[in-house]
Design goal:
Blueprint: H1 4-16, H2 21-35, H3 46-64, E1 80-82, E2 84-86, E3 106-110, E4 117-120, E5 126-129, E6 134-138, E7 146-157, E8 166-170, E9 173-177, E10 181-187, E11 192-199, E12 202-206, E13 209-214, E14 218-223, E15 228-233, H4 236-240, E16 246-252, H5 254-265, E17 268-271, E18 280-285, H6 290-301, E19 306-310, E20 314-319
Parallel strand pairs: 7-8, 17-20
Antiparallel strand pairs: 1-2, 3-6, 4-5, 5-7, 6-7, 7-10, 8-9, 9-12, 10-11, 11-14, 12-13, 14-15, 16-18, 19-20
Length: 321
């Protein structure tokens, strides 16, 4: 059994990617013992067990708040009961685990290329998945309103439930609400995240750090590489116009524009400029041809010295001159 200080130290090293082989083996052994306790834990395969273990490790780390907040005595000594009473080193772990595909399981919802998919969640909240987007959540969602945005963009109309906050994990960020409407977009290539609010208030955090409390017509953009946050004002169409068939991109950079073109037209985009460069606002019909789109982009990008070239099977973005 690991003592408390060593356990927290290993979790921190694992999160930062600095854990050694022997240390990782010790942490895995501890988590194996945690997961395999009692007859209630039945796994269909070693892979399922290992995936469960990874989720436990991630949630323990997030809930223990490694840092100054760990001194908060209100978070110490609490117990979480799920299936069997589980208390791990006296910390409030808040485990959201998927014990078995037979008993609880995970649901994945994905939209196809060219499809906007509307779906009603088990708590009666409505969501719209943009083209080529995917989310996952537990079958016991009503009591644990937690969604993982795996790729793409989703618009949420969340049913109010003061006792069960609604959270979305997208890359490094967590978005939390109790009842509101907003969109979250994960920009795959860089793990940048965009959150845009239509109604209500939305809290966006990175671990224990609150990045912003957003109100209607506000958008938060997070640069994962540089750990930078920018909040600006946007029109409603920026958040949900695509749910009605509009294409409305407001003040987007090259990285977000590149992803949209690849998704919309199924073509590879080769970028040779700074992915954070550019400031494009585009409102066009979703059926606009690629040829016409490039003409529009070059009219806008020309002011910043950026041009788009259509090649045989790709688009090239490069600096002019």
């Amino acid at each position: 059994m690991l003592d408390k200080e060593l356990f927290l130290d290993l979790l921190k090293k694992w999160k930062e990617g600095n854990i050694s082989g022997p240390e990782l083996e010790a942490l895995n052994k501890y988590l194996d013992n945690l997961v395999d306790v009692g007859e209630v834990f039945h796994f269909d395969s070693i892979l399922e067990r290992d995936e469960t273990k990874a989720r436990i490790r991630e949630n323990i780390y997030q809930q223990t708040n490694l840092g100054p907040e760990l001194k908060n005595k209100n978070r110490i000594g609490k117990k979480i009961s799920f299936a069997v009473a589980a208390s791990v080193i006296g910390l409030a772990i808040g485990l959201m685990i998927f014990v078995s595909q037979r008993e609880i399981g995970t649901i994945t919802i994905s939209s196809k290329v060219g499809q906007v998919l509307k779906y009603r969640l088990p708590d009666s909240s409505d969501i719209w998945l943009n083209d080529s987007s995917s989310i996952s959540f537990a079958k016991n969602f009503v009591g644990n309103r937690h969604i993982v945005l795996k790729r793409g963009e989703v618009f949420f109309e969340v049913r109010k439930d003061p006792n069960h906050p609604f959270t979305i994990v997208s890359g490094q960020l967590t978005t939390t609400v109790k009842g509101t409407s907003f969109s979250v977009k994960l920009i795959d290539s860089l793990e940048d995240v965009k959150v845009s609010v239509v109604t209500g208030r939305v809290a966006v955090s990175n671990g224990s750090d609150t990045l912003g409390i957003l109100h209607p017509s506000e958008r938060l953009r997070y640069n994962a590489k540089e750990k930078k946050v920018r909040v600006d004002s946007v029109l409603r169409n920026e958040a949900d116009g695509w749910t009605r068939g509009d294409v409305f991109l407001q003040n987007v950079n090259i990285s977000e524009l590149k992803q949209w073109i690849e998704t919309q037209y199924g073509i590879t985009v080769l970028n040779q400029v700074d992915p954070q460069a550019g400031n494009y606002t585009i409102h066009v019909n979703k059926n606009i041809s690629l040829y016409q789109l490039i003409k529009v982009l070059n009219m806008i990008g020309g002011k910043e010295g950026i041009r788009f070239l259509q090649q045989q099977d790709s688009i090239l973005i490069q600096s002019q001159g």
